[in-house]
């Protein structure tokens, strides 16, 4: 993986993790794929 050097994004412009996680969905996952054994 390679990264380009550039300007940093100010923290006030970064979306909080709790807001990002709201967009994740597990509706398409089966119970087997999210079980403790998996």
Task: Give a quick precis of the structure.
The chain has one helix and no strands.
Structure characterization notes:
There is one protein chain. This protein has 38 residues and is mostly loops. The protein has 1 helix and no strands. It has one helix at residues 17-21. The chain is elongated, with a radius of gyration of 17 Å. The mean pLDDT is 80.
How is the topology of this model organized?
Blueprint: H1 17-21
Highlighted features:
38 residues, little secondary structure, 1 helix, elongated
Number of helices: 1
Helical content band: 10-25%
Unreliable runs: none
Radius of gyration: 17 Å
- Give the oligomeric state: single chain
The best one-word shape is: elongated
């Amino acid at each position: 993986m390679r990264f380009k050097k550039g300007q940093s994004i100010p923290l006030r412009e970064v979306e909080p993790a709790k807001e990002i996680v709201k967009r994740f969905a597990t509706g398409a996952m089966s119970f087997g794929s999210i079980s403790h054994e998996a």
